[in-house]
Amino acid sequence: MSFQQSQQQQPSQSLQQSQAAPAYFQALLDRGQKRANTNDEPQLQLGLQDIARKVRNLGNGFTDARAHYLLSASGVNTSEALRDLEELAGPRSTIPPPNEPVAAGVKETLAREHESDFQQMVDSHIKRAHAEFDQMIEERLHGVDWDAHRQRIYEHFGLKRPQTQDGANVIGGASANPGTSTFGRSSRRGRISTASRSTYGIPGMSKSVIGSVGPRDLKTSVFNDVADRLPADGFRPAPNDSMLRKKQDKFADRVKDLNIARLQEKVYPLLTRFAEVEAEPSHDDTSMLVNAFKALVHITGEDATKENVSEPGVVRARQYAKGYLDDAGGAENVLVRKRIIDGSRTFLEKLFYSQVRTTVARNPTEAHTGGTPSALNVVKGYVRVRAVRKELGSDMDALQQIGDDYCWAVMFYLLRSGLFDEASVYLAENRDAFRSIDSHFVKYLEHFTASPDHRLPPTTQTSISNAYSMLSRLAPQGAIDPYKLMCYKVLGRCELGRRTLENITNDMMDWLWLQFALAREFSRVDEMAHEAYGLDNVQESIEEVGNRYFQPGTEIANAAATFFFMQILAGKFEKAVADLYPHNYVSAVHFAIGLDFYGLLRVSDISNSDDLLTLTTRAQHQIAFGSMIGLYTRDFRTANVTAAVDYITLICLNADLQPKNLGKAQRELCHQALTEVVLETREFSQLIGDIRADGMRIKGAIELRLKLIGLGNEREYLRQITLVAARIAEEQGRTTDAALLYHMCDDYDKVYQVINEAVSLALITELGEQPARLQPLKPRNTDDHNNQEPNQEQASLSLTQNEDPIQLAKDIMQLYKSDGMYLNKISRKYSDACEVLLQLAAARKELENGRWSQVVDSVTASDVIPTEAAGNISAIRSKSQAFDLMPTTVARTIGHVMVWTVIALSNQVTRLKNQEYETPAINEAISRCVQSAKDVMVFAGLIRYKLPGRVWETLARAGQDLGAY
């Protein structure tokens, strides 16, 4: 066979083999599948890629979570079970096998020592930081109510509904279970009262009483119901008008005088003094406001001529509170309601009579009264003037006359003026004429004036009612004198369904007088149904008039003040103040003060609502008096903080409320407001007190008014308020304030801690730089004599009025060392630290003045570094070990003190070497200086890793220049 034939035959054989291979392998595969599964070997069911993936995954085990889910569904905590099993198994040994000791040289030994010292230093600092942080958390957040914070967050984001509490819990203080929190855990402190919540980091306080000062020239309102009646932007002009500011100052003076009188237990005519301030010239028409104050004077019976509480008829503070706040309608409540009716009517009568006298004085010719007329002749003259002006009525022919006088008009205006005795005199002078005109009227008037309540006997009441009915219905139209009908209506309270002055020229004041002339507080047993018309009915009538004529947008001039006056007359005091507040908040606040002083105001707690005016459970109006007073002080408490305290003490007028938990809530509200004022204004010396150079305490404004804020234990409250303020001052770095406040609450250790910190920071200031000066305490206001005790009106020589921290520390230490009382209450470690710092301060001062030997002497006296070790390594090492025990305030200065010492020693050596003659004494002094420098350098090396790097570099450079190494 040739080579070519063999080449052709080989390809054909290979082709045949390639075509037969698949069939062969397929046959093997079929044969294997048909074999019985007699062993556990897996069948070949996967491709090569699948087999490779399986092999890769064999090493990567995974956790089947089905068992975990099954156990969890059965209530088994697998994590805790695993930990328990591991504890039973015992801890695994993590001790590495011991390494064979390796002989190391000096370099390796020093490196290990360095690493060990550095690690110990880091661990000690971390441990100390943990301890200080835990202590800070314990002090600052011990009383924080986290459950309340969590609840507010939930409410803010709508995750929970706002909590609602009944009146007893809201105002009354403790809840049903004060020791249990919202989430079932026991809280650290029970919540004493919702009124005790506040801000400024004070535990338990969550809502401010005094509010925050708004932007310049604008004041915001936090009352929701008041904000709705303010302009769209929610702001109102601040009192920038000079006349309004003067008015506020005068009101503040009256409040201060009131508190002085209360402290001296004297009578003060508050409403009369407020009326005088309101009557002063103003851009607005304040006549109605003045009338409102005068009406309250008549309602309360205030007498400005009386000064002593022991005088008969004196109206005391809170005299009407019990009766006014009696919602059950008891006897005292009826008496108060009678006072409101009689006082309002009496005021309207006196106001009208003053107008009558003015009209007669201006028209003497028409009045024709002569020289000094009596009250009866004045009224006669007034009727003549009105007759000349054709103002007596539309039909003058219907008016009856006796002589030249219109008799029924004179009689009516005598009644209108409240001149009942003069009316009897006029009737007696014309008895025969009146008997001929009306034979029964004489009897009616006699019975009316004889009764203190102007109540007619039943038979007389029936007679006058029948007579009035006959006159008004059976008489020809226009044939009856309208003034006669009105006299009958007033004397007999006839036809109470029609309370208007018909056919008589009248104004709003006449209509108001008629309402009160007809009103009478009655007993449902003694009074007939058709004769029932009391204070409630008067209030309904005035409210109806207000809804009709005094709504927003009315064209009536001075509508707000006019309707306010009407509401005051009707005894709707809370509603009146709330309606006036958006228009004239200054007057509204002082009306509220006057009403509350006599107990004629129903007050609410600020935790009830964010509204100024709310309702009690018996649908009685109540006003947020505490918040209103606190917000009012925003206008001036920065400039006159003592005046703000005077106002806020008035909140405690309501401390007598019953039950006791209501009064307690108001007292706590007052205390909270005072605390907020102290923390906001930072007038600590003015409000809390001051100390003189001899350690004598000077009482602050709050302590002088403890009697007015319901406190018998003055030290407890002052310690509470000062301690909070002191912590805040310390946090803000205001050393003088913090030192004073801690001293005022007798925490003398904290005083030392504060001043030691300040001195320490001053000492570590770089050489050549001026240490930071302290912010001196605000001087006391010596112009405020009400805030000074006798013999203390001069400005105090306060120890904290010092800008130099070192001088402050000296003064404090001198004060405490001069009295054994202080020494017994001070820990030795704090006073010793202060003494060491003062010695170091003296050393720095000597260094700056170039007195090198004195620097070394002062440092040696402080005994903080080994300047006299004389090369004794044991003494130096002992001093380095004492370094860890030093107070932080001293330890942070050691690096700088070593720099000062080496610099002083170097300069001292240079000075000695430059002496003209070289003597053995000089050489010995130079040797001692060099040796001291060497000792300091060795000491620095031992604590090298506890010092800042820059300090070590400075020491090394100075020691090298000196030749210490």
From TrEMBL:
Enumerate the UniProt keywords alphabetically. Answer: Membrane, mRNA transport, Nuclear pore complex, Nucleus, Protein transport, Translocation, Transport
The organism sits in which domain of life? Eukaryota
Map out region (Disordered) in residue numbers. Answer: 174-198, 773-800
Task: State the Gene Ontology BP annotations.
Answer: poly(A)+ mRNA export from nucleus; protein import into nucleus
Which segments show compositional bias classed as Polar residues?
A: 788-800
Q: Which GO terms describe its molecular function?
A: structural constituent of nuclear pore
Taken from the record, one Pfam family name reads Nic96
What InterPro entries is this protein classified in?
Nucleoporin_int_Nup93/Nic96
A Gene Ontology CC term for this entry? Answer: nuclear pore
Please state the protein's primary subcellular location. nucleus
Q: Which family does it belong to?
A: Belongs to the nucleoporin interacting component (NIC) family.
The name on file for this protein is Nuclear pore protein
Q: Which organism is it from?
A: Dothistroma septosporum (strain NZE10 / CBS 128990)
